[in-house]
Amino acid sequence: MIKKIHIQLFVLIVLFACAFSGKAQAVEKKDTTIILITDLAVQLQCTEALNDLYNFKFDDAEWKFRYMRYKYRWHPLPYFLMGLIEWWKIMPNTKNEAYDKSFLAYMDSTILVAENLYKKYPAYKLEASFFLAAAYGFKGRLYSDEYRRQWTKAAAAGKSALNYLEECKKGQSLTPELLFGDALYNYFSVWVPENYPALKPILWFFPKGDKKLGLEQLKEVSYNAFYTRVEAMVWLMRILNNYENDQPRAYQLSEYLYQTYPDNPFFHRYYARTLYTMGRFANAELASQQILTRIDSGMVGYEATSGRYAAFFLGQINEARGNLDDAKKYYKLCIKYSEEIGVTEAGYYLYSFISLGEIEQKQGNKAEARRYFTEAKKKSKRKDEAFKDAKRRLKKMEQVD
């Protein structure tokens, strides 16, 4: 399902892979020659840690990033790396605000250290601009989340990100990393007014984008970047699946991300989702069952959000096979997980009630069927398809009676 996107799309300007823990100070730099973001030795140091991060081995990643902080505490890179750890703790369930403060603190530390480089050391101005754009972009993305909706802060962060992104464009040495921010802006600055005409006036204050170019840039970053490669893949996967109706390509990306980082719950559930959408039900069943098993075992990052997806898919698959009692079990589990996290207006939740009512009808339990349809109608909005569906079914039951 496509989530409604508003002003936040303008602050998703720069995503990047890096940060650190602890309170940062604007430490004077010690090395006057090394540009960390393009340095091969530094990238080699980051490789294993980034793999740990995306595979939700946060303790292992943090230990490695701490060493980078010791060695390069004058640079924004290690602070940003630790911030990225906090960001991916948020990703499985963005409704959970437990990591907001630590994440924002790491982004502020990144900004503080990057501003010191930007103002005092001309040779680092371009690289500092990159981190400033990235940190402000991430802050804006959090503020604009559908569960936070801090629009004023989001707009301010987005404006700062854009300013530094323009500064980044003056140099070519950081590409294709720089293309990531450009790609997101090019795509969404066109997509938003196409789908939300009421927001067109906002675009008067922004440069004109190019949606087709944005997609091509995202693909290039996905193939060739180091730090922004995975983040670009995530956005390309979501765009192809939700907005471009290219499920086969979205599936390929989800499969790659899941197989490369098999313990990442966000990648895991997206993989299960694309399998289900593509009609690959045997594999979708296996992936969904594994998600529920990992939730039960308390595996890091696996919680009710992933559970409601997996349970609904299993309910649908079992219902299609005629395993009605199993289907009922999974629909009830989807309802349970949805209520745990307060997501009771989403389609999976509402259609679990409708599906339960439909099954009870098939099994001759009219009272139970009526109860589930009534619940779906009561919990949905009048304009929702679930409301109309439940109302139609209840009316038909009354006519039969």
Brief rundown of the structure:
The protein is mainly α.
Order of helices and strands: HHHHHHHHHHHHHHHHH
Number of strand elements: 0
The chain-level structural class is: mainly alpha
Helix count equals 17
The residue ranges in which pLDDT falls below 50 over 5 or more consecutive positions are 1-23
The domain tally reads 2
Q: Give the radius of gyration.
A: 23 Å
Q: Mind describing the biggest β-sheet?
A: none
Distance between the termini: 35 Å
Rounded mean pLDDT is 86
Shape: elongated
As a percent range, the share of strand residues is: under 5%
Helix content: 55-70%
Structure notes:
- The protein is mostly helical.
- The protein has two domains: 7-245, no CATH class; 266-400, Alpha Horseshoe (Serine Threonine Protein Phosphatase 5, Tetratricopeptide repeat).
- Helix content is 68%, strand content 0%.
- It has helices at 40-54, 58-71, 76-90, 100-120, 125-143, 151-168, 179-195, 211-224, 229-242, 247-260, 265-277, 281-296, 304-321, 324-340, 347-362, 366-379, 385-400.
- It is elongated.
Topology:
Elements: H1 40-54, H2 58-71, H3 76-90, H4 100-120, H5 125-143, H6 151-168, H7 179-195, H8 211-224, H9 229-242, H10 247-260, H11 265-277, H12 281-296, H13 304-321, H14 324-340, H15 347-362, H16 366-379, H17 385-400
Helix pairs in contact: 1-2, 2-3, 3-4, 4-5, 5-6, 7-8, 8-9, 9-10, 10-11, 11-12, 11-13, 12-13, 13-14, 13-15, 14-15, 15-16, 16-17
